[in-house]
Amino acid sequence: MKSPVSFIYGLYERQIIAGLNGNLPGHVGLMLDGNRRWARSVGLETSAGHRAGADKIADLLTWCEEVGIDLVTLWLLSTDNLRREPEQVSQLLEIIAEAVETLAATRRWRLRVVGELDLLPESIVTRLHAAEAATADVEGVHVNCAIGYGGRDEIAGAVRSLLKEQAKAGVSLEDLADAITVEHIAEHLYTRGQPDPDLVIRTSGEQRIGGFLLWQSVHSEFYFCEAYWPAFRKVDFIRALRDYAARERRLGR
User: Fold this and answer.
1) What DSSP assignment string belongs to the chain?
2) Which is catalytic among the residues 21, 23, 33, 175?
3) For 14-57, how does the pLDDT look when each residue is reduced to its tens digit (9 = 90+)?
4) How far is CA 50 from CA 35, 98, 154, 239, in A?
5) What pLDDT band is residue 248 in, cutting at 50, 70 and 90?
6) Would you call 236 a catalytic residue per the annotation?
7) What's the pLDDT score for residue 89?
8) 24-150+196-243 CATH fold
């Protein structure tokens, strides 16, 4: 039997969802921030915070399924994170690899790993690619797992890839400089072929994007939530959707 508090929250969540009138984002990006601060706030080790954050991901994807969001991008590890103490990085990578493998094992969501994977240990990359391959035929929510990701690195990599492609085709640098367009660069991003995020959510109270989807989020709506990621609730997610639904999107016009 549900507690009175759970019943009230459930009723509140249903009322919010009913008021959205189908005005939902098709692509949601999430900056899963606050694992370490949450752990400190409850007297636990940092690793416990990261594990609690990893466990929360399946809940989030379930909520996305329930309301009909088709594409999610999760920022699991930044390139800046890779500059921490080697022992911390190793521990964090193991937690992330286990989380991705656990998500893949459910066969509910189609996973795609993006980021500067050449910066990661080969053993971790092998595991991540195996999890990705195991869900290649899944028709559920598509999930971009951004690991070793930085927005500036992504854009720089896209430009390098474009230059190499055009050089291979015999195009001179001068001709390319005259012809290059926004669309050309977009075709070489990690998210090529996908719609840009409609809504980007950052947890933990920080109000900055920190390099997340720099190119793709030019017209995104942003929502900053005070809750640390491990404490992020379904009602927090639905409130973000309500906020999004109430906005008038101009898309730069």
Assistant:
1) ---HHHHHHHHHHHHHHHTTTT---SEEEEE---HHHHHHHTT--HHHHHHHHHHHHHHHHHHHHHHT--EEEEEEEETTGGGS-HHHHHHHHHHHHHHHHHHHHHTSSEEEEES-GGGS-HHHHHHHHHHHHHTTT--S-EEEEEEEE-HHHHHHHHHHHHHHHHHHTT--HHHHHHH--HHHHHTTSTTTTSPPPSEEEE-TT----TTTTTTGGGG-EEEE-SS-GGG--HHHHHHHHHHHHHS---TT-
2) 33
3) 767 666 777 899 999 999 999 999 999 999 999 999 999 999 99
4) 5, 11, 25, 24
5) confident
6) no
7) 95
8) Undecaprenyl pyrophosphate synthetase (3.40.1180)
Please state, in angstroms and rounded to a whole number, the distance separating the CA atoms of residues 150 and 209: 11
Annotated catalytic residue within 35, 81, 144, 196: 81
User: Would you say 143 and 61 are in contact if contact means Cβ atoms under 8 Å apart?
Assistant: yes
The alpha carbon of 36 is separated from its chain's Cα centroid by a whole number of angstroms, namely: 18
Range 141-154 average pLDDT: 98
Amino acid occupying residue 124: I
Lookup: tokens for 47 = 């690793």
Q: d(Cα 201, Cα 64) in Å, to the nearest integer?
A: 13
d(CA 161, CA 147): 19
**Residue 21 annotated in active site:** no
